[in-house]
Amino acid sequence: MGFEIVMVVVISMFLIGMKYLDSLIQKENNFPFEAKRVKIVYTNWRGVKAERLITPISIRLGKNQWHPKECYLLNAYDCQKMEVRTFAVKDIHSWEEIK
């Protein structure tokens, strides 16, 4: 019984978090529509290529500790890592909207 209650709480928190994320994305970007999930193939700063499921938030020209040369940076919610991450646009190999 305890495990089932924990799972209900975890799932509820996840769903509330996703609704909050969608409202945050819409507010930051003034989007008139719900944010879309996207599957990308990305090579990180270590050279590791992997498939990622993300929700784009914003894009900007800049640099950070992982991308020391100025480039376009995509801020997105990483659905697997469950946190906002920054991706160098130049290192995205494919982009597929999830329906």
Summarize the helices and strands and which ones pair or pack.
Layout: H1 2-29, E1 38-43, E2 49-62, E3 71-78, E4 83-88, E5 92-97
Antiparallel strand pairs: 1-2, 1-5, 2-3, 3-4
Write structural notes for this entry:
- About 5% of the residues have low confidence.
- The longest helix has 28 residues.
- The chain has a five-stranded antiparallel β-sheet with strand order 4-3-2-1-5, with helices on one face.
- With 99 residues, the protein is of the alpha+beta class.
- It has one helix and five strands.
- It has one domain.
Tell me briefly what this model is.
The protein is α+β, with helices and mostly antiparallel strands and 99 residues long.
